[in-house]
Amino acid sequence: MILPESSLFTLEVEAQARGTRAPAANERLHIKVNKKLRPAQVADLAARITGLESSKQVALERAGLPAVLLSLLAGALGMPRKRLLEMLAVSRASVEEKISSSEPLRGDANRRTFNLLRLLAQARELVDSSTAPEAAELDVGAWLGRWIETPQPALGGQRPSRLLDTETGTRVVERALGALRSGAYV
Questions:
Q1: Cα–Cα separations (whole angstroms), residue 56 to 5, 6, 35
Q2: pLDDT tens-place string over residues 50-70
Q3: Which of 53, 165, 178 is nearest to 113 (CA)?
Q4: Pairwise CA distance, residues 81 & 73, whole Å
Q5: Closest Cα partner for 120 from 184, 42, 22, 61?
Q6: Alpha-carbon gap, residue 73 to 82, rounded angstroms
């Protein structure tokens, strides 16, 4: 069950023109994430964010995701934040600075965080659609964290974590994860 949006995050629309209702193209969307989310709730957050309508996702990508999401994702995946940042090829010093000053992520760090949210949402969907009895009790984030650090035959024996620093690599990992649903070997 996915928690209500308000307990996970809030979205705020800021019109560029003050006092008037500006066209959607002139609006900025800001996200405020509940920093006290438990690791298991981060999969809910990922599903909600990646399930937003396309125009809102584009606006969020432009505005930048909160840097604290990287800490939440690391906790959900059961790995140290340092390892997550290495995996995404994101500067630790830059992220620490953005977290302490509450600045949003930009550029590659923002895109790679969005990609990881999509991957976590995909894993959540995979587990939610499973008929295996143990799936109901599975910690999706921890499972995904283990899966991305395990060599996968479908990736030529590479660990998915070695591919998440590029767009193409991330798409390859998404296909490999998606193939698990049908049991297909890609």
A1: 14, 16, 21
A2: 998 898 888 888 889 999 999
A3: 165
A4: 8
A5: 42
A6: 12
